[in-house]
Design goal:
This protein is of the alpha/beta class and 265 residues long. It has twelve helices and nine strands. Helix content is 49%, strand content 14%. The chain is globular and about 40 Å long.
């Protein structure tokens, strides 16, 4: 059983929801990224989603755009991110890791080359924001060959026919975008989220996680019973942007807050 599938299976047996924590590789530097990955897991993160820096991250709000810029200023590469996974796996062989990014850096490395290296490094999945199913034949084949999950995004505006097509082509889990906008958006409509997640769940047995706009205990509480998990990114990246002073403690406190909110009745 793959790590992502095993994680959701174990959480389901415990009647828990997944906390997926996001940060950008190389922001503020690779050493700190590795340290924060370990801190997040120790405080309750179930899956790590690592942003791969790109010059035009179109789906990101200002917070994560700036994180991409900082990582690029540090000359962080996709190869650096794969090496980081190798380092993380020396201590943790169970926590799933997903790369979230945009097609250009991955295409530059090549689908076969990337997926082969990713499997050997201990990566579990990839989520390419600007790679629709119609344009992903090479990556779909290479990911499957190398036991990588190909995670798909579904937006509030996605119609039912396309949802079915996306679900057929996905593995690992489905990432539902809870708001119409970019990462870090503030307004979540729980009624709309519930309706859309129910539609998705009627078309797939894959877990569905909700992201965009989830930043604190209140926003977690508003959606925690509507899906199989949540994704938190901008709230964590904001803390990283404040600088290294007490950064580990800040991240620890935030993950504990989010994790506790997921567990609350």
């Amino acid at each position: 059983m793959k790590r992502i599938e095993s994680t959701f299976d174990n959480l389901r047996k415990q009647k828990k929801k997944a906390l997926v924590a996001y940060l950008v590789v190389g922001d503020p530097d690779l050493e700190t990224t590795l340290d924060l990955m370990e801190v997040m897991v120790s405080k309750g993160a179930d899956i790590l989603e690592l942003g791969i820096s790109f010059s035009d991250p179109m789906a990101e709000g200002p917070t994560i755009q700036h994180a991409h810029e900082r990582a690029l200023e540090n000359k962080t590469t996709l190869s650096d991110a794969l090496d980081l996974v190798i380092q993380f796996r020396k201590k943790d062989s169970t926590t799933p890791i997903v790369f979230m990014g945009y097609m250009n850096p991955f295409e530059a490395m090549g689908a076969e080359n990337f997926c082969s290296r990713a499997y050997k490094s201990g990566l579990d999945g990839i989520l390419l924001v600007d790679m629709p199913p119609e344009e992903s034949r090479n990556f779909t084949r290479a990911a499957s060959t190398n036991s990588l999950d190909l995670i798909r995004l579904i937006a509030p505006t996605t119609d039912e026919k396309r949802i079915k097509n996306i679900c057929t082509d996905a593995s690992g889990y489905i990432y539902y975008i809870s708001v119409k906008g970019v990462t870090g958006s503030n307004k979540i409509d729980p009624v709309e989220v519930k309706s859309k997640v129910n539609t998705i769940q009627s078309m797939t047995d894959l877990p569905v996680v909700v992201g965009f706009g989830i930043k604190d205990a209140d926003s977690v509480t508003s959606v925690r019973d509507l899906s199989d998990g949540i994704v938190v990114g901008s709230a964590l990246v904001n803390l990283i942007a404040e600088g290294k002073n007490q950064l580990s403690d800040k991240i620890s406190n935030k993950i504990e807050e989010l994790s506790s909110a997921l567990l609350s009745e």
